Write the structure tokens for this entry.
Amino acid sequence: MLLILGYQLKLVAQDIHWSQFNDNPIFQNPANSGRFSGTYRFYANYRDQWRSVTVPFQTLSISADTKFEKVKNLSLGILFFHDAAGDGRFRTIELQVSPSYNLKLTSDSLHNLRFGVQFGMNHRQMIFNNYYWDNQFDGVQYNPSLASNENYQTQKKTNVSVGVGAVYEWAVSKRKRIAAGIGFFNINAPNQGFLGTVIKRDRRLNFFAQGQFRLNDEWDILPTVQLNFQGTYNEIIFGSNVRYILKERLDQYMALYFGGFFRNKDSGYISAGLDYKDWFAGISYDLNFSKLVPASRVRGGIELSLRYIVNRVKPKNIFHRVCPDYI
């Protein structure tokens, strides 16, 4: 239990991560707000990790973004996530607002450069009484009636974080495009210490690149890579999905996705998904290869994603010529 607690306290200064990072675009980069074809976009993501080791780490994310009709090239994204970790149910709740601006580099919109800003309100809570402390062992067994003698000042912490991002996209068609982005998060490095000491939330640097390339009439390949650097922690994920198009008609579009990815040092994961009209559903499963292998037996966690896009077509203004009445 002390090992798990130490792991959770280490995570205090780190951000959460996703396997299906391309299906949580606003979390990935604030400049991704509005980077889609449609009027409104909604996402829901859920991750359940380490259930085979201890009380699972569970994360839920809900987001929405839209393009402003009256302010050209301006978009807005909103994201909420809730994370609960381990035996003590260390909780993180955050609300992020991410406006973005799209700069068209060419008149045909083939090349675009987007800029985004992220403002987040972060709340963290730790219930210390849920943990087992060394002072509560009486020499024979754990005794919850003994005082922990831990000097914590607060079990709750609320702070504000700021991030920025930029994304370049070369978009020829839905089946031929490349995007790459950079994001810098927790610029203000807010204090989130619980034990009376200052524990800064480390700044995080994110890079990503993704592509979609047509192989033939039915198959596409979608390679992607993402890099995260935060304090002494780094994460590199690379891999690819393949897409098999079942129906390509706009009102009957349907496609299947299958993929495999590798995360440096500790895991890989497999993924699958389904596109149906304006809906997308995805699932991935992590295979753990870290030092916790004896406990987890190569089982890491499951992740689910759901997306819905609203396409609102503006009615065309039709001008009618009024003809005079003739008798």
Observations:
- The chain has three helices and 14 strands.
